[in-house]
């Protein structure tokens, strides 16, 4: 009820490009502040277990390392990602986008995942200024020895839960 999720084969790798979209009751700046790398994300994103800003290039541009919890009764082991992240104005709203980098050593007990070009667009609804349309394009390669059906199940439910968790955090 919080979001709609679609998928199609990715042009970047053998998995899927997911599109998630939903209306969120809040202004674009506050929503994106909760999504981009920074202090809010760990407070509400139940999948994320750690986040470190490794390098900052300018105010809205950084390299971050984050880890995710295991999923589906740990069939999907905890993952680690190192992403370049950039946030900028886009039309009347904001865009926060990223891509994984081959950077540093993989920490023990994690599999290094890879995010192909991803992004979140957040624009105000014209007729309802207190609401915003949040659209995400996600193409995550979890890597490791995983059945594709487990990845598909995890991605769809993770994206749907992302919206409901975000809405709770913004209240």
From TrEMBL:
**Xref: Gene3D superfamilies:** 3.30.530.20
One GO biological process this protein is involved in is: intracellular cholesterol transport
Per the record, what is one GO cellular component? cytosol
UniProt xrefs under InterPro entries: StarD4, START-like_dom_sf, START_lipid-bd_dom
Name the Gene Ontology molecular function terms of this record.
cholesterol binding; cholesterol transfer activity
Domain START as annotated: residue spans: 1-171
Name of this chain's protein: STAR4 protein
């Amino acid at each position: 009820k919080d979001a709609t999720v679609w998928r199609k084969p990715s042009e970047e790798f053998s998995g899927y490009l997911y599109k998630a979209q939903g209306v969120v009751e809040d202004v674009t700046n506050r929503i994106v502040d909760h999504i981009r790398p920074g202090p809010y994300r760990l407070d509400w994103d139940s999948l994320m277990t750690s986040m470190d800003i490794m390098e900052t290039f300018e105010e809205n541009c950084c390299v971050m390392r984050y880890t995710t919890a295991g999923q589906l009764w740990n069939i999907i082991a905890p993952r680690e990602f190192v992403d370049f992240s950039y946030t900028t104005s886009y039309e009347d709203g904001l865009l926060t986008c990223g891509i994984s980098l081959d950077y540093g050593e993989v920490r023990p007990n994690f599999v290094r995942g890879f995010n192909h070009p991803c992004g979140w667009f957040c624009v105000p609804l014209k007729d309802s200024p207190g609401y915003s349309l949040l659209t995400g394009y996600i193409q995550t390669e979890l890597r490791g020895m995983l059945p594709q059906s487990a990845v598909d199940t995890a991605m769809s439910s993770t994206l749907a839960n992302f919206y409901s968790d975000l809405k709770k955090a913004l209240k």
